[in-house]
Design brief:
By secondary structure, this protein is α/β, with parallel strands linked by helices. The protein is about 45% helix and about 10% strand. The relative contact order is 0.15. It is a multi-pass membrane protein.
């Protein structure tokens, strides 16, 4: 990004750097989750950190299933705003979401990495909280993303929950109001059909989110 032609504005270079960090969080942390524990155990005297974390992991195991633990300071980092500016990603409000109800929001297409829904739903980059005050949002992801150490913590800070009926239903309990769960309904199957000029949606046999919506009201 800093080796780009001299006529590329500094702001664009900063946006590009932020995208690299964004991609590292989404992709690189999977490798980090394996390499860091292995390094601590076999190459340092800090091996004790790994079993200590394992105890914490056991204690904290159900947190992703119970709404995770989003951190607003992390969701509102300027990093995400710069990434949204890079693409760009914008959020357009077409309806009210009163905080007296709970919601399932279906997103499509999946694309390669679902950057649009991640930036709009798991971060504050596009102004969700201003447009929809009182709505507490969670975004569904593959279970494995919330099992790997380090990665799971970052993903929980962004408000991700596992793609399971238990996790989704937990956030839509009738006694809790103002909750919204975002689901990229096409999943990884739809991601494989991503292209630059065509959107193939995988919806015909994806009715699970409709059933949960009916069950939870």
């Amino acid at each position: 990004m800093f080796l780009a032609p001299l006529n590329v504005p500094l702001e664009r270079r900063i946006q590009t750097l932020c995208v690299v960090v964004f991609l590292f969080i989404l992709l690189g942390t999977a490798f980090l989750s394996i390499l860091v524990p292995a390094y601590l155990i076999f190459s340092t005297s800090y091996w004790w950190i790994v079993p200590l974390y394992a105890v914490w992991y056991y204690y904290d195991y159900r947190t992703p299933l119970e709404g995770s633990k989003p951190r607003e300071w992390f969701r509102n980092l300027i990093l995400w705003e710069k990434v949204a500016e890079y693409f760009p990603v914008t959020l357009v409000k077409t309806a009210e979401l009163p905080p007296t109800h709970n919601y399932i929001v279906a997103s499509h297409p999946h694309g390669i990495m679902s950057c649009g829904i991640i930036l709009s739903w798991a971060t504050g980059a596009t102004g969700f909280d201003t447009m929809f005050p009182g709505i507490s949002r969670r975004l569904v992801t593959l279970d494995i993303n919330l099992f790997l150490p380090i990665r799971r913590e970052l993903f929980m800070w962004m408000g991700f929950i596992p793609a399971s009926k238990e996790a989704i239903t937990y956030n839509l309990k009738e006694e809790n109001e103002g909750n919204a769960v975002g689901i990229v309904v096409g999943g990884s199957e739809e991601a494989l059909d991503a292209s630059t000029d065509n959107f193939d949606l995988t919806l015909k046999y994806r009715k699970g989110f409709v059933k949960i919506a009916l069950e939870t009201g």
